[in-house]
């Protein structure tokens, strides 16, 4: 870990590196102090953001993870085309809905801030860490 900035992870990714990124996120979050269900929940939330960036966004796609006092943050970015409003503000899902659970799940597993538009999307996922 970079002691000055707290950076744990910073790289570009694509479809071929999703599994590697998930392992790196798991290791980085564990090294930052997450354990048990908190670790599993956070890794799943980040994985959903990474998967969505590959599925719906354009290259370049990036991920950065860092630790601040009391919080672990991960930012996933892509270069467009942006997330439609109907996907951002989905409140309910039925068991018959196919897809559309990624953002919904991220919000249940971490603190999420999303900025999106035609130039790209930035998803910031945060979780408490001691």
TrEMBL record:
Origin superkingdom: Bacteria
Keywords, sorted A to Z: ATP-binding, Kinase, Nucleotide-binding, Serine/threonine-protein kinase, Transferase
Molecular function GO labels: ATP binding
Electron transport among keywords: no
Entry-linked InterPro entries: Anti-sigma-factor_SerPK (IPR050267), HATPase_C_sf (IPR036890), HATPase_dom (IPR003594)
Domain Histidine kinase/HSP90-like ATPase: 17-126
Protein name: ATP-binding protein
Native source organism of the sequence: Microtetraspora malaysiensis
């Amino acid at each position: 870990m970079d002691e000055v900035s707290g950076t744990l992870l910073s790289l570009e990714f694509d479809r071929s590196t999703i599994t590697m990124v998930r392992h790196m996120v798991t290791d980085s979050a564990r090294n930052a102090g997450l354990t048990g269900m908190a670790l599993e929940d956070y890794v799943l939330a980040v994985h959903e953001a990474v998967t969505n960036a590959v599925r719906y966004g354009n290259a370049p796609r990036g991920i950065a993870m860092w630790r601040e006092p009391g919080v672990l943050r991960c930012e996933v970015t892509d270069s467009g085309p942006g997330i439609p409003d109907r996907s951002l503000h989905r409140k309910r899902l039925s068991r018959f809905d196919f897809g559309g659970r990624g953002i919904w799940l991220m919000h249940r597993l971490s603190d999420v801030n999303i900025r999106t538009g035609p130039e790209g999307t930035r998803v910031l996922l945060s979780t408490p860490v001691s």
